[in-house]
Amino acid sequence: MIWYPYQQMKTMKAPFQIVDAQGVYLRTPEREMIDSVSSWWSVIHGYKHPTLTRAIQDQAGKFCHVMLGGLTHEPVQKLSAKLEQWLPGDLDCCFFSDSGSVAMEVSLKMALQYYMNRGDKSRTKVLALEHAYHGDTFKAMEVGDDEDYHFVLEAYGEKTDVIHIPTRIDALEEAFARCHERLNSFIVEPLLQGAGGMRMYDIAFLKRARELCDQYDVLLIFDEVATGFGRTGNRFVADLVQPDILVLGKALTGGYIGHAATVASRRVFSGFYSDDPAKALMHGPTFMGNALACAAALESIRLFEEEDYMSKIARIEAITRREMAGFGDERIKEVRIMGGCVCVEVKDPKVLEGYQQFAYEHGVFSRPFLSYMYAMVPYVIEEEELVRVLDTMKAWFRR
Ligand SMILES: *Cc1c(COP(=O)(O)O)cnc(C)c1O
Asked: Among 25, 114, 115, 133, which one carries the catalytic annotation?
């Protein structure tokens, strides 16, 4: 049997059976529906994109995978060269892994060892945000601020190596003043906190964080697994404020094959570059640099650039603002829009019970969680399709 994610298996409703997918549409045996979730925010070009499918097929004709221990290949070389050129500043050093959570673990391990390699063993703490989500592996859960982690706290007691702060500059300054000597890194989902509830905050917070990290010699890590590749309306938030380590995942391959990257600046890399083998980064996921994933990622980035995806995202945001203008309901706490993300937060999660089925009947796949009804559509969506997604969200409150 399949053990499904984030579900009580005893009470879970049967998932939709997907038999085909094309463009923004998922097809069940009964009907087709627009995927307003982009398969967990990753399928930015839609499904069965001929260019991506062909890139994978062509690479499969050569080899699907070889390990990166002692071997290398053109797709991974080209992808790292592309990212080096494409990402801002000196974010040049790409460590690949098979999922966002693992790439996060790598970033945290990098930050800790960066100081250890300098003989500084006191910087064991990580500063993070309230409502943060960085993945489901253990350290990623720990830097996260998620109720799903609470069973661990029950078992082991309070966590002491992670400090959580709200996205307020006074709280940020206070935390740095109080514990900068013990911090190796400050980790954030920049501008948009996804799984923590599509929470949006101001760039001024990140600019101040950059200053404080410089002042106190703390590494700034951006988890752009969700925000990267345009979701916030910026190509990367790292284009606005440069982190020392940037983590990419989800849309990296256009959502075609799971892959992720932890991209370090030259300065971070140089903290490991040594004649001493003990200073090496001891990590190596079996499927890092998978050739099919790299081939898909290269084509995904090429499409993103050549077909001017940033203007597609600006259009999605403009249509969303137009359609949601003036929309409100007493059961709604807030409507938030940023780039290719719209979230309707309700006051009581019960308000959203039954919405997924309602959306399905209206030809939209949606997956609300807790108090959040949201859409993060594939960027190739047509205007009328996007309007249908937004109309479905609004119609739920007008029944
Ligand atoms: C999804 C997500 C992760 C984890 O990525 P996986 O590929 O699911 O392991 C980490 N950080 C953020 C911000 C995410 O949205």
From this structure: 133
User: Cα(171) to centroid of ligand 1, in Å?
Assistant: 25
Residue 277's pLDDT is what?
97
Nearest atom (ligand 1) to Cα of 99: 7
- Residue-level pLDDT at 77: 98
Q: Which residues of the chain have pLDDT under 70?
A: none
Instruction: Give the largest CA-CA distance in the chain.
Output: 68
User: Both tokens of residue 263?
Assistant: 């991209």
Amino acid at 12: M
pLDDT in tens, 137-179: 999 999 999 877 778 878 888 878 999 999 999 999 999 999 9
Using the mean position of ligand 1's atoms as its centre, give its distance from the Cα of residue 134 in Å: 6
Which of 125, 139, 250, 312 is the catalytic position? Answer: 250
How many CA atoms are closer than 13 Å to the CA of 238, on its beta-carbon side? 31
Write down the H helix ranges in the chain.
38-41, 50-60, 74-86, 100-116, 138-143, 150-156, 169-179, 203-216, 266-270, 291-306, 309-324, 355-361, 383-397
The closest residue, in CA terms, to atom 6 on ligand 1 is 100
pLDDT value at position 157? 82
Alpha-carbon distance 84 to 78, whole Å? Answer: 10
In the annotation, is 360 catalytic? no
DSSP three-state, residue 252:
helix
DSSP string across 138-186? HHHHHHS--GGGHHHHHHH----SEEEE-S-HHHHHHHHHHHGGGEEEE
- pLDDT reported for residue 294: 98
Instruction: Write the pLDDT tens digit of every residue in 269-300.
Output: 999 999 999 999 999 999 999 999 999 999 99
Among 96, 97, 105, 134, the mutation site with the greatest number of ligand 1 atoms within 8 A of its Cβ is 134
State pTM to two decimals: 0.98
**285 CB near ligand 1 (under 6 Å):** no
Q: What CA–CA distance (Å, rounded) separates 394 from 361?
A: 14
Please tell me if the CB atom of residue 189 comes closer than 6 angstroms to any atom of ligand 1.
yes
The question of whether 6 is a catalytic residue gets the answer: yes
Q: Is 333 a catalytic residue?
A: no
